[in-house]
Amino acid sequence: MPLHVINHPLVQHKLGLMREAGISTKSFRELSNELGNLLTYEATSDFELEPHAITSWSGDTIEVQQIKGKKVTVVPILRAGIGMLDGVLGLVPSAKVSVVGLYRNEETLEPVPYFEKFVGDIDQRIALVIDPMLATGGSMIATLNMLKQHGCESIRVLVLVAAPEGVEKVLAAHPDVHIYTAALDSHLNEHGYIIPGLGDAGDKIFGTR
Ligand SMILES: O=P(O)(O)OC[C@H]1O[C@H](OP(=O)(O)OP(=O)(O)O)[C@H](O)[C@@H]1O
Ligand SMILES: O=c1cc[nH]c(=O)[nH]1
Ligand SMILES: [Mg+2]
Questions:
Q1: Which domains does the chain have, with CATH numbers?
Q2: 194 within ligand 1 shell (Cβ under 6 A)
Q3: Tens digit of each residue's pLDDT, the chain (209 residues)
């Protein structure tokens, strides 16, 4: 099943803190990055290893394990995805960053694209798409379509909170993509917000609420 709900106690504890009404911008931002880091740990747990010979501290030649195969590009969806970026890069510091700018029209809930800048060799890389919220799934599907149009074939999605409606739509459109989330919440309200959710994650990360 390409949906992975990460029930690790640290993940659940941190997400619980984020749900508190009146959380400060500073705390929300810190926790977004910490969860981005922990979700990256989970989403990379099947990366392949290969042996490398090195000279150890004692002068012996020893075999160590190093990650094999494709390199990573992290793909934050503006704006809110930026709030997870430092945490994700903390575990994959050599990754290149590809940026997608989308906002959700508040009336129609349709994604409106306004920016894209992909790394040149994106067809050779594993993409880790990051956004705190997967609500109707429109923004994520639009991003996955853009990535595939640029030849990217190996894609994983990291979100803090997902709605069942959005997960179903994303997996119907892109069944090859694995979604890693800290929570699969109850439902969307009449304005397309996730319940219980986090509220407007972009506003909370940037302090614009
Ligand atoms: O699944 P969907 O229904 O498409 O909604 C989710 C999108 O909405 C939010 O972004 P928003 O449009 O608020 O932009 P922002 O990050 O600039 O605040 C969120 O960060 C996702 O990108
Ligand atoms: O609940 C939601 C839905 C979309 N965007 C958000 O920031 N929060
Ligand atoms: Mg927003």
A1: 3-47+68-206 (3.40.50.2020)
A2: no
A3: 799 999 999 999 999 999 999 999 999 999 999 999 999 999 999 999 999 999 999 999 999 999 997 899 999 999 999 999 999 999 999 999 999 999 999 999 999 999 999 999 999 999 999 999 999 999 999 999 999 999 999 999 999 999 999 999 999 999 999 999 999 999 999 999 999 999 999 999 999 97
Interface ipTM: 0.98
Q: State how far the alpha carbon of 118 is from the alpha carbons of 74, 81, 89, in Å.
A: 10, 15, 17
Tell me the C-alpha distance between 121 and 104, whole Å: 28
Q: What DSSP element (H or E) covers 142?
A: helix 138-149
- According to the annotation, is 194 in a ligand binding site? yes
202 is in an annotated binding site: no
- Ligand-binding annotation for 140, yes or no, is no
Cα-to-centroid distance, 133 and ligand 1 (Å): 7
> Ion ligand 3 — residues with CB under 5 Å?
200, 202
Q: And the tokens for 122? A: 């994106």
197 Cα: distance to centroid of ligand 3 (angstroms): 13
